[in-house]
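Customer escalation, tier 2.

The customer says the design service returned an amino acid string that "doesn't look like it belongs to this structure." They asked us to rerun it and document both sides in this ticket. The original structure tokens are below, unchanged.
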């Protein structure tokens, strides 16, 4: 296109055309957007898998094996340091940590905000189905000598990490109303 006939790069002040605003967002606003997008990706993936008849648990186990690589070489961890790492990950998805109890053999936490109920409604996914994503952590925990469990109620998500020698090492899911 000839430079003389090209449209102006920036609209005139009185022009009502589109004006980009992507650079106007604060870091906090972008963080909130990223958290929402991350949860949306998880929940939309669950919807896709369900629609195709693919077990969500298979997907969770598969990504858990891949995520585990990012946690370094498999070696024993204490329950408290593992839960602390998982809480960081879940906060990055938009969860809020409401209560914690840390111990080397057993650690617990109560969270809200994951899975996001509004996004679950938007994508037609039950919160309990979206929470199956948490089963990815079972693989990571087991390779570090830990047992991982989660329980979802209407109001909160409860997480428990136990040393394998002190627990059965199985993932438990309690989806209580």
């Amino acid at each position: 296109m000839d430079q003389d006939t090209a449209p102006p790069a920036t609209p005139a002040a009185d022009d009502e055309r589109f004006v980009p605003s992507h650079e106007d967002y604060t870091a906090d606003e972008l963080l909130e957007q990223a958290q929402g997008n991350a949860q949306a990706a998880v929940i939309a993936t669950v919807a896709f898998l369900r629609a195709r008849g693919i077990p969500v648990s298979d997907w969770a186990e598969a990504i858990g094996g891949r995520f585990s690589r990012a946690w370094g070489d498999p070696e024993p961890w204490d329950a408290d340091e593992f839960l602390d790492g998982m809480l960081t990950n879940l906060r990055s998805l938009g969860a809020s940590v409401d209560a914690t109890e840390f111990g080397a053999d057993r650690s617990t936490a109560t969270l809200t905000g994951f899975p996001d109920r509004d996004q679950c409604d938007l994508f037609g996914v039950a919160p309990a189905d979206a929470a199956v994503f948490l089963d990815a952590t079972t693989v990571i925990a087991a390779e570090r000598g830990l047992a991982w469990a989660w329980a979802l109620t209407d109001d909160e998500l409860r997480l428990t990490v136990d040393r394998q020698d002190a627990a059965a090492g199985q993932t438990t899911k309690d989806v209580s109303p």
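Tier 2 assessment: The sequence is consistent with the input. The chain is about 40% helix and 15% strand. The chain has one domain: 30-175. Sent an explanation to the customer and offered a walkthrough call.
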